[in-house]
Give the backbone structure.
Amino acid sequence: MKVLIVDDHAIVRRGMISLLEEHFKGVKIGEAGDAREGLAAVQREDWDLAVVDISMPGRSGLELIQDVKREKPSLPILVVSSQSEDDYALRALKSGAAGYVSKQSASDILVTAVQRVLSGRRFISSALAERLAGVMAGDSAATSHETLSNRELQVLQLIASGKTIKEISSDLALSEKTVATYRSRISEKMGLSTNVELTRYAMQNGLVN
């Protein structure tokens, strides 16, 4: 079995490698520190599973999922992230992921998720399953940030973390004009005009620490 881990924190990758080697004998593991390296690894080799983080420098995990699915549609992807399940799990699943696990979950949950995804099934928590049921039944009201695209949400989080348009431009490898356009769209969709209002909203809804 070959597993690719894409996460920008080396200590997190090391922990997942130890866990996988303990529970899956003979597993071969590859590492990538960002989405660019992850996509290159997918293009270069065949894998049985990709374990992907959401928040990474440059292209986000959500964008990587879409890139990978275009290259290798049958490759199962498990998201393991510290980002809020409420805000990102549905986005990840819609992008093509087969499961979503919080980094705060117990190690046995991650092992179960890997086993389930490798068997061709999906893995979601009971809380997310309930939320999905609510969405399908039409009784779950969308919050303002759920109307944002994946990139817009990423820009909102960076604004709320105190970064300037220039800094966001550098982090995401986008032009300042493009970032400013995303900023305008965010304000229009959410009805919030100032960075203070956007930051307050992000903090109240757990989008930033």
Q: What stands out?
A: Residues 126 and 142 are 20 Å apart (CA to CA). The chain has a mean pLDDT of 88.
